[in-house]
Amino acid sequence: MLEQKIKDLKKDIMLYAVLVESMVAKSIKGLQAQDKDLLTEVIYYDEPQANEFDIHMDEQCTNTIAQFQPQARDLRTILMILKMSTDLERLGDSAVSICRRGLFLVENSIFKMSPLFYQLATAALNMLHDSILAFTDEDSVAALNIVKRDAQVDELRNRIMEELKETTRSQPQTIDINLNLMDIARKLERVADLSTNICEEIIFMVQGRVIKHHKED
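RE: above sequence
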């Protein structure tokens, strides 16, 4: 019974992960294409589904622990799924925030995104995609490699921030545009951070090892 329940939990969390990855991908595509319909779709269609998944996963994980009192790896797996659900909820919120900022930009201004933005968006989305694959495969080695890629995203975010600050100084009339772009850059970095969380949880699930404060190992 417990084995089947864990299989069901894994299936449900994967469906949730696929939805959230789609939300992030659409938020990026909608921003780049300045597509209001796509941005709106994430906010009004995808987000309610994500919220339902979050509630479902919390209830199912909690009930499974209470009913079966799992131990060792089974318990680690359920706890990992519960934490992953929280990360996915926050990833969905980040996607919605990107869409809201994107709608403001599309509706109120003509703007261009620098090549660094595309690099940041691609790097963050790839980390999310790969972290989901690592969970599917229970691949702690791949998870650790993904964690190490977070530094690249941080560097890109910092370069974008400096670029936008410089533009604001030289062109004060762009301040509203740049403030929104700065927030989008932070949310993209957040996508990478939450993907890193998922990978840390994969390593805990598979190895029983906590690396949160020991990423250099």
